[in-house]
Amino acid sequence: MTRPPTAAQRRVIDAADPVTGRLKGTPAQLAALVKRGLAFRHPRPPHDHFLTPAGQRVREAPAEEAVASAPAAADSGVFAARGGGGESADASPARLREVRGAWQGLLELRRMTNPDGATDRPCGWERAHLVRAAALALEAAGHRPASGDGAGYRVRATPQPEAVAVREPDLAALRACAATLEEAGWQVSEHTDPRTRQRYVLASPRRV
To answer: Quick one: 142 exposed, middle or buried, by C-beta within 10 A (0-12, 13-18, 19+)?
Structure first.
């Protein structure tokens, strides 16, 4: 289980700017938050520190929920959306809050890391974590990830660079997923699997 932030770290997180997530603290405190995936250092001067989506979830959650909202992925600390791999179909209020907070945090990450501050197209983190980024966009929009009954979307990596495949047994639902990704800044195209004859969508992060 991931340890919750220390009391000092929690104070720094709670004091973050409510709009931008900008942090103030000692160099040691900020470095510790970066190491835990709760903050990132902006690449441009003055190199301020800002909350990651995981850090924003910690700020939004009551202190006793900090463990549950701590980074789900050790490598990035960014919220892990469901890609339709048979995960539990949790639609509880707590899960919905996590998804909503992660999506808002990702939009802020776009604003802070895209060179022009644009939030209408994916950022570098999304291009480096295609499946998780696409799954987050879909789950945040209310689409259902696949679970035991076979219904719902599945997001999978492909041999193509910067492209994921989205599959959904229901064609109308598949096209709704494609529309969601397009609105989230992805380029999408619909194809037919030559073996199964089922339709699927290829999606790639839009750069301009």
So the answer is: exposed
What is the percentage of the chain residues whose pLDDT exceeds 90?
A: 35
Q: CA-to-CA distance for 60 and 98, rounded, in angstroms?
A: 9
DSSP conformation class of 114? S
Q: What is the dihedral of CA 73, 114, 120, 108, to 10 degrees?
A: 50
The answer to whether 185 and 121 have CB atoms below 8 angstroms apart is: yes
Q: Where do the domains of the chain lie?
A: 1-73, 79-208
What does the block give as tokens for 23? 């942090």
Strand pairing category for 49-51 and 199-205? unpaired
Q: Where are the beta strands (DSSP E) in the chain?
A: 39-41, 49-51, 154-157, 164-167, 186-192, 199-205
User: 50 near 44, Cβ under 8 Å?
Assistant: no
Which residue is associated with the tokens 């932030």?
Answer: 5
* Coil, strand or helix at 153: strand
168: closest CA among 134, 121, 122, 207? 134
pTM beyond 0.70, yes or no = no
Neighbours of 26 (CB within 10 A): 10
- Give the CA diameter of the chain: 58
User: Is 171 within 8 Å of 199 (Cβ atoms)?
Assistant: yes
Report angle CA 37, 40, 42 to the nearest 5 degrees: 170
* pLDDT (0 to 100) of residue 71: 33
